[in-house]
Structures are given as structure tokens and as C-alpha cells.
Amino acid sequence: MPNHSPRLVGAERDQLATPTDVAAYLGVPVKTLYQWKYRGIGPSVHKVGRHLRYRWREVDAWLDAQTSYDLTA
Asked: Which residues sit opposite 51 in a β-bridge?
């Protein structure tokens, strides 16, 4: 009997995150993620069927690109 399950090879496949996962990681409400998606200002989001999913590497890249404030001034 053949095995039809997808093969995940180490770090070659990124695990997808739900909006709840990303909201918890960023410390913002899920509603904020939906607003960012609507405005086109948040991390890249992908539709999988009718569900929204994020790639962790894209969330981290978006976070790194955000402006930081100089708190020493």
C-alpha cells in the first residue's frame, strides 16, 4: 500500500502559521493582522483554501524591515 503523505525534509519546508500564531508572536490582536492585510502594510499572507496562513520567514523579514525608533535621543 503506497504512502501518500507529504514528505517534509528538515528545514526545506517552512511550517505555516495561523493568524493566531502570528498575532501571539507579534503581541498584537488578530484583528490588527486583518487590518494590516486590508491596508497592505503587514507581513505577507497566503490563502490556503479559505484560510489565511503566514510563512515564518516572511513574518521575520517583515519585522526586520520595520522602522525602529532611536530611544537614546
From this structure: 48
Q: Which residue positions in the chain have pLDDT lower than 70?
A: 1-14, 70-71, 73
Contact of 58 with 43, CB cutoff 8 Å: yes
Beta-bridge partner residues of 47:
52
Global confidence as pTM:
0.74
Q: How far apart, in whole angstroms, are the C-alpha atoms of residue 25 and residue 11?
A: 20
Q: How far is CA 14 from the centre of its chain?
A: 11
CA dihedral (6, 10, 14, 18) positive or negative = positive
> CA-to-CA distance for 49 and 34, rounded, in angstroms?
17
**Per-residue DSSP letters for 6-45?**
PP--GGGSPPEE-HHHHHHHHTS-HHHHHHHHHHT-SS--
